[in-house]
Amino acid sequence: MSRFRMYPTPTQQAALLKHCGHARYVWNLALEQWSMRTRDRRVTPGYIDQARQLTEARAAFDWLRAGSQTVQQQALRDFDQAVKNYYTGTHRRPTGRSAGRHEGFRIVGRQATRVRELNRRWAAVNVPKVGWIRFRSSRAVPDAKSYRITRDRAGCWHLAFTAIPAPFPGPGTGEVVGVDRGVTVSAALSTGELLSCPSLSQAEEFRLRQLQRRLARCRRGSNRRQRVQATIAKLRARGRSRRKDWVE
After folding, report:
1. Residues near 156 by Cβ (< 8 Å), separated by ≥ 6?
2. What angle do CA 155, 156, 159 make, to 5 degrees?
3. DSSP 93
4. Gap between the Cα atoms of 48 and 38, Å rounded
5. What whole-number distance in Å separates Cα of residue 110 and Cα of residue 91?
6. How far is CA 219 from CA 207, 223, 234, 235, in A?
7. DSSP of 215-230, one letter per residue?
8. How far does Cα 77 stand from its chain's mean position?
9. Virtual torsion, Cα 26, 27, 30, 31, nearest 10 deg
């Protein structure tokens, strides 16, 4: 998965949040129907029935019809796949999604290929009912058939393309290398090589400790406490983005 930082305008951010809310609403409704499955009632609506119900709901509610049908139907497909993965034993049981924590949606199909390069550093993606949104082309954009747009707790938007990378050629010697994961060192190889995942710098760690001490002195529910929490979230999101980019 190749992840890029998006820079939507305030109007586009509001439209993206509506898409996230619609996808979360449809997911939670599908989860509620599936949770009604009991020993006496083993048949619950599947994707076909839920898609038909979604069409009826869009005709009845203007706020739902104002959103993208592509986003809402894809949320149903994602839930249906999550249920199948749960029954096959490869994934955990699907859970509900909450506002502020699960902000995102997925686009699949021909609409996911609407990407154009603006210049050497910038590109744009066409999101349904939102328009062209700029993102920083920090690496080559893969030829993918789907992408996911997410918003983290620090308020940053990200665009992730799903693509199968080319396999790395092996040495062909048959040699086996062991990997041990740790805390101080991210990964230690049996060959003696140590791999460290990038994190916050010393200055950023010092800044984080200062903010945490300031947060402990803030009164609960105050505006000052909310500002400090937002600053801490942005600082931690910076380190989290570095780790994800290192893994990718």
Report:
1. 5, 234, 237, 241
2. 140
3. P
4. 21
5. 28
6. 20, 9, 21, 21
7. HHHSPTT-HHHHHHHH
8. 16
9. -150
One-letter amino acid of 171: P
Instruction: Report the run of H or E that residue 16 belongs to, with start and end.
Output: helix 10-35
Q: Give the pLDDT of the chain (248 residues) as one tens digit per residue.
A: 688 999 999 999 999 999 999 999 999 999 999 988 766 666 778 899 999 999 999 999 999 999 999 999 999 999 999 999 999 999 999 999 998 888 999 999 888 889 999 998 999 999 999 999 999 998 888 888 899 999 987 788 999 998 777 777 877 787 888 888 887 788 888 888 888 878 888 899 999 999 999 999 999 999 999 999 989 988 888 887 777 766 55
Side chain identity, residue 121: R
Tell me the CB-side half-sphere exposure of residue 49, using CA atoms within 13 A.
8
Residue 73 amino acid letter = Q
By DSSP bridging, strand 122-127 and strand 131-136 are antiparallel
- String of DSSP letters for 112-141: GG-EEE-SSSEEEEEETTTEEEEEE--SPP
